[in-house]
């Protein structure tokens, strides 16, 4: 009942803000204090709801239908029009492929489209529900606690139950209170989640600096998550984490904190070193040997674990049909080193987007990302501006180039959720400034 009332008041607030600004805002804040907490819990607890073969849905997907409803309710807004255009051109590429190549529209084409589009609705969750200073503080405080609870339990589980971390080419062990963790199959997917939690911990350390207890939680999060990222042996996540630590290190008055963090990260590695990490060591040695052999043979594709071949084939298919791409049907060509291509992706967000959608859909998709990121970074809060700029830079130059992270459900959902929160926060500040100017004039 409370949830229904909150949603009802929230919609009423959206339509009636200009007419009844003070009264509606009071009702909205009173009714929605617990909603940022719920959103945070669902977003940062990467439990698998449903899985089929190698495909799964995380807990955060429970919020997608609400984001979709908000998108439909406010269809005329700028961001909704961007997303409508993305969906339209994506569907058009699928339909044109059936007409040009006389192929049936397979369900996997539509599922591939849904998996790429659905995390975007997280933008509306952040934009609509976490749109006041109070709600933003509640959201980030809760996320801090949820992240610590998740990683602390996982660390104890790894040490006491599994007696160490087991890492293979496509799997990393572990569970959360006996429940399956989303992304354990497909290590980079889970490592991407590690990275975004680490980055938020750095952000929270600055953003929630008035609360000592929160800073302690942030410090613990940074230490534990760094250990998990290093143990994942994901080159993408490790490189992203190095830059996150570097940014933190370069901040004024943060040098001693960064050294302390590094010390505790080394300490925790030594503390758990007596457990069985032999499989992790063997995998590390195999990866090092792979790089050495690749360098000796001057084989970049071997060093990149086949990524270069995936890039080349996807780009070749895109340029063959630039306006419809692969029409969400996956690879249509054989790839050396891969006995089966079904379910494979280029492991590069830029290539994946244009390859799947085609030229027009890809341009609209990245134009939407550019506008959302630009609005978010234009924030008046210097801490938000600083850390969000860093987050966008690391994503644009590292994560997007090494993994199609915006197709990973929980990472992508949090990514768009943050853009929605900070875009709305920027708009609120802009509105207050314009109102103050009108009053002054």
Strand order in the largest sheet: 1-2
- SSE ordering: HHHEEHHHHHEEHHHHHHHHHHH
Largest sheet: 2 strands, antiparallel
Tally of helical segments: 19
Proportion of residues in helical segments? over 70%
N-to-C terminal Cα separation, in Å?
Answer: 45 Å
C-alpha Rg, in Å?
A: 23 Å
Tertiary shape = globular
How many domains, in number, for the residues?
2
Q: What is the structural class?
A: mainly alpha
**Portion in strands:** under 5%
Mean pLDDT: 80
Membrane topology: Multi-pass membrane protein
Organism: Alcaligenes aquatilis
Protein name: O-antigen ligase domain-containing protein
Subcellular location: Membrane
What descriptive keywords fit this protein?
single chain; globular; ligase; 3% strand; mainly alpha; WaaL-like; 441 residues; two-stranded antiparallel sheet
């Amino acid at each position: 009942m409370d949830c229904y009332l909150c949603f009802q008041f929230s919609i009423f607030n959206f339509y009636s803000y200009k007419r009844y600004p003070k009264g509606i805002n009071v009702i909205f804040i009173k009714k929605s204090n617990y909603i940022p907490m719920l959103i945070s819990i669902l977003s940062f607890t990467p439990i698998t709801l449903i899985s089929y073969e190698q495909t799964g849905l995380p807990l955060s997907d429970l919020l997608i239908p609400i984001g979709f409803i908000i998108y439909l309710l406010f269809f005329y807004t700028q961001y909704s029009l961007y997303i409508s255009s993305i969906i339209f051109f994506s569907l058009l590429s699928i339909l044109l492929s059936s007409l040009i190549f006389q192929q049936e529209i397979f369900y996997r084409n539509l599922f591939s489209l849904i998996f790429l589009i659905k995390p975007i609705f997280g933008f509306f969750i952040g934009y609509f529900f976490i749109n006041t200073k109070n709600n933003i503080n509640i959201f980030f405080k809760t996320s801090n606690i949820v992240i610590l609870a998740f990683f602390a339990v996982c660390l104890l589980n790894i040490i006491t139950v599994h007696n160490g971390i087991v890492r293979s080419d496509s799997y990393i062990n572990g569970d959360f209170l006996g429940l399956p963790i989303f992304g354990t199959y497909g290590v980079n997917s889970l490592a991407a989640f590690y990275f975004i939690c680490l980055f938020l911990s750095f952000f929270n350390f600055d953003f929630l600096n008035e609360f000592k207890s929160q800073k302690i939680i942030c410090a613990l999060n940074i230490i534990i998550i760094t250990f998990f990222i290093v143990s994942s042996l994901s080159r993408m996540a490790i490189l992203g984490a190095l830059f996150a630590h570097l940014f933190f290190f370069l901040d004024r008055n943060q040098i001693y904190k960064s050294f302390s963090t590094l010390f505790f990260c080394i300490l925790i590695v030594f503390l758990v070193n007596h457990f069985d990490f032999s499989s992790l060591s063997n995998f590390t040695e195999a990866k090092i040997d792979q790089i050495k052999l690749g360098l000796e043979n001057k084989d970049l594709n071997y060093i990149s674990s086949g990524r270069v071949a995936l890039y080349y084939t996807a780009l070749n298919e895109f340029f063959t049909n630039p306006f419809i791409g692969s029409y969400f049907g996956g690879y249509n060509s054989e790839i050396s080193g891969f006995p089966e291509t079904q379910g494979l992706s280029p492991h590069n967000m830029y290539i994946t987007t244009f390859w799947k959608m085609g030229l027009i859909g890809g341009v609209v998709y990245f134009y939407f990302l550019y506008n959302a990121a630009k609005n978010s970074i234009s924030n008046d809060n210097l801490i938000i501006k600083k850390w969000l700029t860093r987050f966008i830079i690391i994503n644009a130059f590292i994560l997007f180039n090494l993994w199609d992270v915006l197709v990973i459900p929980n990472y992508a959902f949090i990514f768009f959720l943050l853009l929605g929160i900070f875009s709305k926060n920027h708009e609120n500040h802009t509105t207050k400034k314009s109102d103050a100017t009108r009053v002054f004039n």
